[in-house]
Design a protein that fits this description.
Elements lengths: L2 H10 L14 H16 L5 H15 L1 E9 L2 H5 L4 E7 L5 E9 L5 E8 L8 H32 L8 H13 L7 E7 L2 H8 L1 H19 L3 E7 L2 E6 L4 H9 L1 E4 L7 E4 L1 E7 L8 H17 L5 E3 L2 H22 L3 E10 L5 E12 L2 E3 L1 H8 L4 H22 L7 E5 L10 H11 L7 E5 L5 H16 L3 E7 L6 H6 L4 E4 L14 H15 L3 E5 L4 H9 L4 E3 L7 E2 H10 L7
Parallel strand pairs: 10-11, 13-15, 15-16, 16-17, 17-18, 18-19, 19-20
Antiparallel strand pairs: 1-2, 1-4, 3-4, 5-7, 5-10, 6-7, 8-9, 12-13, 12-20, 12-21, 13-14
Helix pairs in contact: 2-3, 2-5, 7-8
The structure holds ligand C2E and magnesium ion (2 copies).
Length: 583
């Protein structure tokens, strides 16, 4: 260092304690300290004990008494002195301020380091002072980097309320995967059951407390045998070793959780959980684990009550089948792979065909796929709505062609409309638009709807049925007698037709006085009394036909007459028009 520079520095640091006398710590020792410091701080496995020892060694060499670091998130907090203060060194004698460094990081955070000496400490030389300053700068750059890392870590791995988040979970899975410890662990994804209702009952703030306490319960049980994190809302992920399995699962199955300090007010919390017990010794990766717990959770959530579902490979097959149907549906619809079959409805006295039900078939790769395979899948999204309108267009087109040919056989065709349509406020208009576009008389179309499960749906159902009735389109309640049918359904909704499900139709071996027969009789009587037309589905035998006649049911639909027929086969049937030749 040139002499004038030295003088400049000396001016800058004009400290009565710094002299040009011989250094307290010689250059060589100072250089070794610096090297050790850099090595200690920058090694990937930083050891705090080593670091503190080194700092103490340096402090002893320079006769320092006290070292203080202060950390503030920003300047405003620094002004208010709201930050963290660390003191790695203090012998109680440091009264004279020797050195003070303050840096403001790019993030706005402020770091201050101050070093004190005692009154009887030996006077340092300028070299001592410079070396010490350099060492302090090294330490500060390290502290600010570690701090920044901690801040970043907090942002990345924790949410705004301090819960570990999904990245935290994935990091843990990755760590277990890398160290070959994933096999044998139990991974769980869970949603709290009906938490929206709990929130409504006790208020959001108390709801948050419940979540916090429930989370802590599981966290405590898991301890250091895994981890739990929050995906958001009332959704969580955890992984743990088998020794805490029973305890964790019993919490998930349902426990009372308090939400006040006196632990007096409690609610019962349970979860819909998907569990994957990772086979011991398996070489599975974290993505597969995630996929499996999500699949099992999907199954758990479909059950009405909160449930714990263990993953098995068949679930994956089901899910892949569902995905494949959903992916192929659009193309299938565009390529005309969906065919409309018609099943005759027959007057039980005259044996004449009086109508038909349109039922869909998917002709895929030369195979006829039955509705049971694809309708429930399409009902998981609104795909089913597009299919129903496709069927409506096909039916209206066929009726139009028939009318244009001057064919007098004006049969009413019924179509199935999924419950998924009920929330669509434009449903009625949409149906009328299609029917009118083909100039099909409204009375030739009948819309079949099944019962609903909730009050909201019930209101929608009533609105839709009333609207259709006003527009002159008939409505039928489908599958009556199974599922959620209630008497309210026929009291409150102005249906035209009641379709009694085949499960309700007595079997051949049932005696006339059996419960099934008696119930069937009463339901028919009730519907009749309410002015509803009755169609009985699933008539397979002559004896069943007799039962219909005896009970005054007018219309039958079933394999006894015909299965659902492709369009051209149905036309052939119409030529003959009745089934008298069967007798
Ligand atoms: P659904 O509306 O109750 O239709 C009657 C079902 O009973 C038809 O099954 C029919 O083939 C069957 N069936 C009729 N007579 C008999 C019989 O004597 N014995 C037996 N064992 N079964 C009989 P399919 O065609 O397989 O349709 C099943 C369900 O799929 C339908 O039940 C309906 O809910 C739904 N579906 C079919 N096509 C459509 C559609 O285009 N849209 C909507 N939303 N659903 C549809
Ligand atoms: Mg039907
Ligand atoms: Mg039915």
């Amino acid at each position: 260092m040139a002499e004038n520079q030295l003088n400049e520095m000396f001016e800058k640091y004009r400290d009565p304690r710094i002299t040009e006398k011989e250094s307290v710590v010689d250059e060589a020792t100072a250089a070794v300290f610096l090297r050790r410091l850099v090595k200690c701080l920058h090694s990937s496995n930083f050891d705090r004990v080593d670091y503190v020892e080194l700092v103490q060694e340096i402090s002893r060499a320079y006769h320092l008494s006290k070292g203080v670091s202060e950390f503030y998130q920003n300047i405003a907090l620094e002004r208010r002195k709201e930050g963290e203060v660390f003191c790695d060194l203090d012998d109680g004698k440091g009264t004279i301020l020797l050195l003070k460094n303050r840096i403001v990081a790019n993030s706005g955070a402020v770091l201050i380091t101050t070093v004190y000496v005692s009154e009887d400490a030996p006077v340092l030389s300028l070299n001592d002072y410079n070396n010490l300053d350099l060492m302090m700068n090294v330490i500060m750059s390290f502290i600010s980097r570690r701090r920044l890392q901690r801040v970043v870590e907090q942002y990345i791995f924790f949410d705004e309320n301090g819960y570990p988040n999904v990245r935290y979970y994935l990091r843990e899975l990755f760590r277990l995967e890398e160290s070959g410890q994933l096999g044998g662990m139990i991974a769980v994804n869970f949603d709290l059951h009906n938490f929206a209702v709990i929130n409504m009952d006790i208020g959001r703030d108390n709801g948050d407390l419940v979540i916090q306490n429930y989370f802590s319960m599981i966290e405590e049980v898991i301890g250091n045998r895994g981890c739990i994190c929050k995906l958001g809302g009332d959704k969580f992920l955890c992984i743990f070793s088998p020794d805490v399995k029973n305890e964790v699962l019993s919490i998930l199955a349902g426990v009372p959780v308090a939400y006040d300090e006196n632990i007096e007010r409690k609610v019962k919390v349970s979860a819909a959980a998907g569990v994957y017990e990772i086979p011991e010794g398996s070489v599975i990766n974290k993505d597969d684990v995630m996929e499996r717990i999500m699949i099992a959770t999907g199954v758990a959530k479909k059950q009405d009550e909160g449930a714990i579902v263990f993953y098995d490979d068949r679930m994956k097959e089901t899910r892949e089948r569902i995905k494949s149907i959903q992916q192929r549906f659009r193309d299938g619809l565009a390529n005309g792979e969906f065919a409309v079959y018609l099943q005759p409805k027959v007057d039980v006295d005259t044996l004449e065909i009086v109508g038909a039900e349109a039922l869909c078939r998917w002709i895929s790769d030369g195979r006829i796929v039955m509705p049971d395979e694809f309708i429930p899948v399409l009902e998981q999204t609104t795909d089913i709505c597009d299919l129903d309108f496709y069927v409506l267009e096909k039916v209206c087109g066929a009726i139009r062609r028939n009318l244009d040919m001057g064919n007098p056989d004006n049969l009413r065709i019924s179509l199935n409309f999924s419950r998924k349509h009920l929330t669509n406020p434009d449903l009625l208009e949409h149906i009328l638009r299609v029917v009118d576009q083909y100039k099909v008389p409204h009375e030739m179309i009948e819309v079949e709807l099944t019962e609903t499960t909730t009050d909201v749906q019930f209101r929608d159902l009533k609105r839709v049925v009333t609207g259709l009735k006003e527009a002159g389109i008939r409505t039928a309640v489908d599958d009556f007698g199974i599922g959620f049918s209630s008497l309210n359904l026929i009291r409150e909704v102005p249906w035209d037709v009641l379709k009694i499900d085949r499960y309700f139709l007595p079997k051949d071996d049932e005696s006339e006085n059996s419960r099934a027969c008696r119930m069937f009789r009463h339901v028919v009587e009730l519907a009749d009394d309410m002015g509803l037309e009755i169609v009985v589905e699933g008539v397979e035998t002559l004896k069943q036909l007799e039962i219909l006649r005896e009970n005054g049911c007018k219309i039958a639909q079933g394999f006894f007459f015909d299965r659902p027929l492709p369009g051209e086969k149905f036309e052939e049937r119409l030529v003959q028009r009745n089934y008298k030749d069967r007798f």
